[in-house]
Fold this protein.
Amino acid sequence: MAGVLLTVLAVLVAGTPGGGVEAAGGRGADTTGASGTRTVRVELRGMRVSPATVEVPSGTRLVLEVVNREAMGHDLRIENGPRTPVLGRGESARLEVGTVTADRTAWCTVAGHRAAGMSMRIAVLETGAGGAGGGEEHEEHAPAAGAAGPDLAAEFSPGWASRPAGLPPAGPGRVHRVTLRTVEKDIEVAPGVRQRMWTFGGTAPGPTLRGRVGDTFEITLVNDGSIGHSIDFHAGALAPDRPMRTIEPGESLVYRFTAGRAGAWLYHCGTAPMLQHIANGMYGAVIVDPPQLPEVDREYLLVASQLYLGAVGGEGRVARMRANTPDAWAFNGVAGQYAREPLTARAGERIRFWVVAAGPGGGVAFHVVGTVFDTVYQEGAHRLRPEDPGGAQVLGLSTAQGGFVEAVFPEAGRYPFVDHDMRRAEAGAHGAVEVRR
Ligand SMILES: [Cu+2]
């Protein structure tokens, strides 16, 4: 309540020429040209800078008292001007903007925060006039993105290898202890295209965890990155407050959950803007086997995701995430990788494909050309079993859903698999299964 009042006050003060929270100079009526000093309190909270606009007469010496009102770290940087350090909750800093003679912008430089809305405008009013400041826009626009996306016919770098898609069975233990370190790492996400990704454990998707109903997972999350991160496991029910909290670089936490129910589950970073953290690679899968899950000849896991190319934290890239216009789509993080290095099987084998849709802005319509699925397990329930007379063509998953399908490959050949949304398939969400005799 007090915060709201302060914000309102700040807006009121900002909109009143000559006013000031702690006005140190004159009242703005200086006739010699210097309008005096204006001090404005600025609050950082909820991906917003309040007030969003500060209007001052030209020639005003402006001082901003910047305070962060939430646990997430923020700063404020003035265009062509000073910046605060990253502020923790309740911390404040004083910014001497200097004498304002033209419109300027200010924003939080923490990755993704500006694109999420953390910017403000310092607008010049005509001296002595109360009219609307019609200053020029200094907003930066997203760079025009290449409409064609990456060249999927290009070569991967020498020594490149696809991410192994084979899914090993769950280990014998009932407690699974894993340490996940958040690290920033350059990864080749499409042929010849390297991107700095934010990862769990150095890969995107992160490591796959697997167990059975009733198993306990104990994850130690260590932040080796340069900004705050967190983790959210869909596979277990608990109060998010402590285990899903954001930890700063150098910190760690232990996240313990018991898998009460079977399924193909997503895990992901839960730090704002989540859209950016997930799109930059912070996602993975937890497989919890249904009871009496029959053995099959081979199991594969394919995590579907969008890819956004460009500088990490680049505002244009984040703008594209928000517009849901990915540059490419991928299975297991790399566009087109299993077209280059196909999955393998033998004729007559039963293959189980586990699929998780990581998004962050779309699902998947998983289809294997030349096969008919006789088993579909989606979001914790069997929809089709081999003894049923029906068949299935697609495992359709919304964002963050998971499941598996099974098929028997009738004869040798090369069987493409796709996201049957052809925009996605042609943008990298395709591969093949090479079936031998
Ligand atoms: Cu993160």
Observations:
- The first strand starts at residue 37 and ends at 45.
- The chain has two domains: 2-125, 175-436.
